[in-house]
Amino acid sequence: MIDLYTWTTPNGRKVSILLEELGVPYTLKPIDISNDEQFAPEFLKIAPNNRIPAIVDHETGVQLMESGAIMLYLAQKYDRFTVEGDEYWRMMEWLMWQMGGFGPMLGQAHHFLKYNPGKAPYAEERYAKEARRLYKVLNTRLEGRDYVAGDGAGVYTVADMAIWPWAARHDYHQIDLADYPNVRAWYRRIRERPAVARGYHMPKKVQDIPEG
Questions:
Q1: Radius of gyration of the chain (CA)
Q2: pTM tops 0.90
Q3: Nearest residue to 188 (alpha-carbon basis) of 164, 204, 172
Q4: Domain positions in the chain
Q5: What pLDDT is attached to residue 16?
Q6: Which of 23, 82, 157, 188 is the most exposed place for a label (fewest CB within 10 A)?
Q7: Which residue, 99, 89, 87, 80, is CA-closest to 162?
Q8: Per-residue pLDDT tens over the stretch 103-150
Q9: DSSP β-ladder status, 62-65 and 26-30
Q10: For helices 121-141 and 181-191, what crossing angle results, to 10°?
Q11: Torsion on CA atoms 140, 192, 196, 8, rounded to nearest 10
Q12: How far is residue 120's CA from residue 28's CA, in Å, rounded to a whole number?
C-alpha cells in the first residue's frame, strides 16, 4: 500500500493522476498547506523540504518527496507510462522541462497575475511573457503529435501527466489555449481520461476541471 501525502495543487495532482492511471491501491493523507500542515514534524520526517507531494511505499519501504522523483519511481516500479531506448530520454527531457520551467515559472505567473495583481508590474510582465513563451514551446513540440514523448505521434507517459495539471491552470496564467491549438487538443485529449478526472479531484474537489 502506498500513502500519498498531497493537496489540491498542480504538483500534488501529478501523482494522484498517475496513481489513478495505474489503478493501484493507495491511501490519501491530505496535507492542508493553507493551514501550514506541511510544517508538521511528522510530515517533515517524510518530506524535509516541507512540500507536497510525498509518498511512503509500505511494500518496499521507500519514502520519497519531489513529484518528478515520485513519478519516475512509480513508472519504474509498475513498468507503465514510460518508454524505452532513446525515447526514454525524450520523456525525461520533457519531464525535466516541466520540473525546471513549466512548473516554477507558471507558479510565479499565477502568484503575480492571479493572486497579487497590480502589486508588481515588472514581475507581472516578466512572468506573463515567460508563460506565453513556455506554452509556445509546448505547442511546437505537439505539432503532429498526440503526446510529448514516444515514437511517431507519441505515447502517453509521466511527462504528459506532469505537464498537464499546470496547463489546467491556464486561466491563472492569462493564457487562452485557442492561441495554442496543439496544446489545446492535447489538453482536451488528456482531460477526457477518467483517471485524470479522478486524480485531479484528490484529495478533494475544489472546482470543475477547466475545459480549455
A1: 17
A2: yes
A3: 164
A4: 2-78, 86-193
A5: 98
A6: 23
A7: 99
A8: 999 999 989 999 999 999 999 999 999 999 999 999 999 999 999 999
A9: unpaired
A10: 80
A11: 80
A12: 37
Q: Enter the C-alpha cell of residue 38.
A: 506541511
CATH number of 2-78: 3.40.30.10
Which of 177, 148, 143, 142 lies closest to 162 in space, CA to CA?
148
pLDDT in the model for residue 155: 98
As a three-state string, the secondary structure of the chain is: CEEEEECCCHHHHHHHHHHHHHCCCEEEEECCHHHCHHHCHHHHCCCCCCCCCEEEECCCCEEEECHHHHHHHHHHHHCCCCCCCHHHHHHHHHHHHHHHHHHHHHHHHHHHHHHCCCCCHHHHHHHHHHHHHHHHHHHHHCCCCCCCECCCCCECCHHHHHHHHHHCCCCCCCCCHHHCHHHHHHHHHHHCCHHHHHHHCCCCCCCCCCCC
Determine if the peptide bond prior to 53 is cis (ω within 30°): yes
Residues with pLDDT less than 50, the chain: none
User: How do 2-6 and 26-30 pair as beta strands?
Assistant: parallel
CB 29 within 8 A of CB 35: no
Cell of 196: 485524470
Q: Is the peptide bond before 203 cis (omega within 30 degrees of 0)?
A: yes
| Amino acid letter, 145 | R
